[in-house]
């Protein structure tokens, strides 16, 4: 991939089709009232979609000293879930994986973080979000990446992978992947099964989850925010910081959940053409163990359940646990 700089724009050219797309090299006017300060080695760019709307991309390139092996390490593209944005990956996991040599790209889906908002009441659909991710990869990433998705971001990746196969049109629309990692992902059938299991087996938890997420009570209740996303040992000031960022990240709903559930389950993937890691958290307050097993069974793999960590695995106090599982899996793919 060649990079050309012209004025305030950075142009990425994909050698395979010589198409170019403008990515703003300067920051746009801030959309989030609470700003996320980037860490050393990170940059904030904006990928322009065919619609003219721009997606925020936080980039952290891999350390060169660890990239000079026989086989170049695959780039990693991170996709967040509801009430989050690119910053949730930039906090811990981008520095961690870039220090191991991986080029890292964290996206903010439309209507989230510093990305533009579409002219609708919701940010998009499973299909439009997956196409936006695909467009970014097609125009900016030279070699097949590994997609890493959290929660509803994992469901978006599942839809992406369902479009991979022998169909030439789909190959053009959805670039090939090296692999995919589903982190505390919403299962292929959606979250309705999880909700109903909670109602019958954990009615108090069901009430709390509904109040926290559907009624957005996590935005005003520190204890509820902690219980929903993090471990009990996370300090108040850290929970407060993430709470404020999550509140500012989601200016509009990621999906219309009724329409989303009506479109599910995601299409099956016979003879899935890539390796998939399905990973969950033992203390997940949102996606239960049955949901984790459903996703793993869908892809014919054994799930990995990380002990003593909560739903926001990439932000939690023991964030290294999940990161190390993924890194070990990535290293295994390179052998």
UniProtKB/TrEMBL annotation:
GO terms for biological process: lipid homeostasis; phosphatidic acid biosynthetic process. GO terms for molecular function: carboxylic ester hydrolase activity; lysophosphatidic acid acyltransferase activity. InterPro entries: AB_hydrolase_1, AB_hydrolase_fold. Coiled coil: none annotated. Residues 76-311 form the AB hydrolase-1 domain. This is AB hydrolase-1 domain-containing protein. It comes from Cajanus cajan.
